[in-house]
Amino acid sequence: MKESLMDVVCCPLDKADLDLDVADRDEEEILDGTLTCTECGETYPIEDGIPNLLPPDMRDEAAA
Amino acid sequence: MKESLMDVVCCPLDKADLDLDVADRDEEEILDGTLTCTECGETYPIEDGIPNLLPPDMRDEAAA
Amino acid sequence: MSVREEFDDWATSGKDRGMEDRHWHTAKHVLARMPVEDGDAVLDLGTGSGYALRALRERGIGRGYGLDGAPEMTRNARSYTDDDAIGFLVGDFDDLPLADDSLDHIFSMEAFYYAADPHTTLQEVRRVLKSGGTFYCAVNFFEESESTHAWQENISIEMTLWSRAQYREAFREAGLYVAEQDAVPDRVIEIPDATAFPTEGYETREAMVDRYRTWGTLLTVGVAP
Amino acid sequence: MSVREEFDDWATSGKDRGMEDRHWHTAKHVLARMPVEDGDAVLDLGTGSGYALRALRERGIGRGYGLDGAPEMTRNARSYTDDDAIGFLVGDFDDLPLADDSLDHIFSMEAFYYAADPHTTLQEVRRVLKSGGTFYCAVNFFEESESTHAWQENISIEMTLWSRAQYREAFREAGLYVAEQDAVPDRVIEIPDATAFPTEGYETREAMVDRYRTWGTLLTVGVAP
Ligand SMILES: Nc1ncnc2c1ncn2[C@@H]1O[C@H](CSCC[C@H](N)C(=O)O)[C@@H](O)[C@H]1O
Ligand SMILES: Nc1ncnc2c1ncn2[C@@H]1O[C@H](CSCC[C@H](N)C(=O)O)[C@@H](O)[C@H]1O
């Protein structure tokens, strides 16, 4: 994901802003990392350049 | 024109309500008469069942 | 010449019915898109023969008002229907004789660009529409449809030649939201083989295809806040 | 089965590209009507292969966001473009991970009715749209298009089967103005002679004509106040 995506994304649960933690990036975008809600502290993974912003219960249920 | 048209028409100049004067009507509608602006006093004719609500200068210029 | 003189002539020579036939090719698609509900009050700006209101009544609108600047047009239109819920009035686009917030929707086909000041007309449209009401503005005469430009030569009234972008911009300037813009093709008109060209109206077959199939009718839909 | 499981399977078996091909028949007409301006930010809800954003970028939008509940869909979609202005994210229709008033327009094709609660989705749509922004909601599965009803049998997710009137009503309940509703015909699909029926999909030729030419895609356009 481009860093500019941060302008529009928010926490799916409480719509608060997210903090970005970059684990891996190339010149253009963030490939791996974490988005953390500044309000509720919930975390969302960025994997292979795509943030997963499903509500945690849906994300975990599907991964199971 | 049906009397119910009075609900939506107004004076084209100042958008004030109009007073209806009926000269001739049948069971269904008003065939001849006059609409008078309650604000500016300008009058508009109803002829053959159709009100002419052109601004007076346009109405007169065309009739000339 | 005034709108009244020009179009009264058209009405008495039967051009109103001719327009109805030709405009229906695209107007029917435009009308079909309007989200009218039972009981709605709809205005037809520059109603001509009044066909749009007759069609919308079949979809259940409660009241149809046909406004036109040419008394003979409204006289003819009145004679084409005996539907009690359709009424006609003579008036001008730039000074609408209609109360604020009085209409659910407004339709207009091939008429808007005759307004002496189209910006004023749009302000009037916004004024008379209820919140959430739509203005379906359909024109065949516009910048991108080049073979229509010559129409101005045959008429004494000054016509507004806007592009698609200019329509959107003017709607927004008047405080309308722009919900849609589309070129609605006329698929009904028959286009002869290339060998038939030049015809009276078109130099080449491509020009005629461009006029009807590519551009057809420009629809711009505005919504009142 | 969850949206994720169902549609991840579709993505890995290549159904995303198949849908793109078929949906394009009507989606191109829907996209053409959107009044997008240079620089606009547009969201594609249930983006699948992401074709709608690729098409809108050719019309000059500034940013395209493709949201989908199936990670494999977004993974494929991402691989189909190297346009820097297009980005994908995984998320659910009922809990949009997008800020209030952040988007100029939203498009959605053949996806809306999978929402667990479509009324919630509409509220979310209204929340994230800027004032005057549009929601172009296109579906092939709806009450009036009867031969589509059987689709529910082949999918484990509950699908919302609304009529045209129900779409309009639900949009209004969510606080959106309804600017347009239309049946956009699919004129591309070939319909065989009557002798070819019954086919796998259709009992009669009439049923197939009804599905594609009469009903096609139901478009409802909402505008945020
Ligand atoms: N400034 C103005 N005010 C009111 N009516 C006008 C006008 N300028 C033109 N008109 C009317 O607009 C109509 C344009 S012709 C189109 C008629 C009809 N809508 C149809 O589709 O066939 C004429 O009837 C003309 O009298
Ligand atoms: N509740 C939900 N939240 C997010 N995405 C969903 C969803 N329900 C279904 N989807 C997504 O919606 C898409 C429907 S298929 C349509 C894809 C694309 N718009 C096209 O026209 O081809 C799938 O990719 C599916 O994963």
From TrEMBL, chains A, B:
Top-level taxon: Archaea
Stored InterPro entries: Trm112-like (IPR005651)
NCBIfam families linked: Trm112_arch (NF038101)
Protein name, UniProt field: Methytransferase partner Trm112
Organism whose genome encodes this protein: Halorubrum trueperi
Automatic annotation (TrEMBL), chains C, D:
Enzyme class per UniProt: transferase
Single GO molecular function: methyltransferase activity
EC numbers: 2.1.1.-
Transmembrane residue ranges: none
Keyword list, A-Z: Methyltransferase, Transferase
GO biological process: methylation
Record carries keyword ATP-binding: no
InterPro entries: Methyltransf_11, SAM-dependent_MTases_sf
Originating organism: Halorubrum trueperi
Every Methyltransferase type domain range: 43-137
Top-level taxonomy: Archaea, Methanobacteriati, Methanobacteriota, Stenosarchaea group, Halobacteria
Residue ranges of coiled coil: none
Name of this protein: Class I SAM-dependent methyltransferase
